[in-house]
């Protein structure tokens, strides 16, 4: 299969997932099918080994195995790792370390997050975690490139993403890629109608709330006490607050400034002692008391 056929097959596979991430989002399907994901994937990336499987993470090399590399690009549930240990591990072969620090998220998660973000035409968008630039170009297809600001904490990754976006967009406008700490946001373009992070947080940064317009949607992965990350969707009140709920389980790399562990009580989580358990003929119910 060529890239177009693989992209179409990937979209069909995502259609079959519970939730139907393209449902009611025709723009998202159109953008997914139009944007060549392979343009945004480096020639050498690691494929994470399956959970529970021993051994190193294999390196995929576009030059050595173009078919294998391209097939992995369009596996809907396979993220591709572009950096390990903040760049200390070179992409020269299989990697033993699982300290992943940058990636291009798997297609199904990209689509899922954009589905929940639900940007509207003309919205202003702040993206935290540019990575390869793939998310930014999908957002640009919906809201317009000049309405997208994408922040990347590592300057060389930001530079590479900006270059990749310019190569893809050609003479057209490109999203603004900013090298900086995404937890601080980008006040120069605020307020934003949509804020999306591909870096997992323990606590929503106050700057995001301060830079969110009234009714703005914020989508970010969050660390939880339950050994999984969860995708959080908030609606901002425009006055520095927001409310929402978790929509699904995900797995993401930590925001660099939020890697150190903090007690759950410090970041707003309840403890097991805060739970009441009731069991009767109607079943088991666990609630906060």
Topology:
Elements: H1 3-15, H2 26-34, E1 44-46, E2 59-61, H3 66-73, E3 80-84, E4 100-104, H4 107-117, E5 125-128, H5 134-143, E6 148-152, H6 155-169, E7 176-179, E8 192-197, H7 206-210, E9 212-223, E10 229-236, E11 242-250, E12 275-280, E13 283-288
Parallel strand pairs: 5-6, 5-8, 6-7, 8-9
Antiparallel strand pairs: 1-2, 3-4, 9-10, 10-11, 12-13
Provide keyphrases for this structure:
single chain; 289 residues; alpha/beta; Rossmann fold; 2 domains; seven-stranded mixed sheet; two-stranded antiparallel sheet; 7 helices
Description:
It is a single chain. The protein is built from seven helices and 13 strands. It is an alpha/beta fold. The model has no long low-confidence stretch (mean pLDDT 94). β12 (275-280) and β13 form a beta hairpin. 25% of the residues lie in helices and 26% in strands. The radius of gyration is 19 Å and the shape is globular. It starts with a helix and ends with a strand. The chain has helices at residues 3-15, 26-34, 66-73, 107-117, 134-143, 155-169, 206-210, and strands at residues 44-46, 59-61, 80-84, 100-104, 125-128, 148-152, 176-179, 192-197, 212-223, 229-236, 242-250, 275-280, 283-288. It has two domains: 3-104, no CATH class; 108-267, 3-Layer(aba) Sandwich (Rossmann fold).
């Amino acid at each position: 299969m060529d890239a177009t056929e693989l992209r179409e097959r990937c979209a069909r596979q995502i259609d079959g997932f519970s939730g139907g991430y393209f449902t009611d989002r025709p723009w998202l399907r159109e953008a997914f099918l139009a944007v060549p994901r392979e343009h945004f994937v480096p020639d050498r990336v690691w494929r994470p080994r399956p959970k529970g499987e021993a051994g190193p993470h294999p390196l995929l090399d576009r030059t050595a195995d173009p078919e294998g590399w391209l097939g992995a690009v369009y596996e809907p549930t396979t993220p591709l790792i572009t950096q390990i240990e903040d760049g200390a591990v070179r992409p020269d072969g299989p990697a033993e370390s699982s300290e992943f620090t940058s990636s291009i998220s798997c297609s199904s998660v990209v689509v899922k997050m954009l589905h929940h973000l639900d940007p509207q035409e003309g919205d202003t968008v702040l993206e935290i975690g540019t990575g390869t630039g793939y998310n930014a170009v999908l957002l640009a297809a919906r809201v317009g490139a000049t309405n997208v600001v994408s922040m990347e904490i590592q300057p060389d990754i930001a530079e590479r993403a900006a270059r990749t976006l310019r190569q893809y967009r050609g003479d057209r406008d490109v999203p603004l890629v900013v090298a900086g700490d995404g937890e601080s946001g980008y006040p120069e373009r605020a307020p934003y109608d949509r804020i999306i992070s591909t870096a997992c947080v323990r606590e929503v940064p106050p700057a995001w709330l301060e830079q969110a317009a009234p009714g703005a949607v914020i989508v970010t992965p969050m660390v939880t006490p339950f050994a999984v990350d969860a995708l959080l969707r908030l609606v901002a009140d425009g006055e520095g607050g927001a409310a929402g709920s978790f929509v699904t389980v995900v797995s993401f790399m930590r925001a660099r400034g939020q890697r150190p562990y903090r007690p759950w009580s410090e970041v707003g989580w309840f403890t097991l002692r805060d739970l009441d358990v009731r069991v009767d003929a109607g079943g088991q119910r666990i609630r906060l008391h």
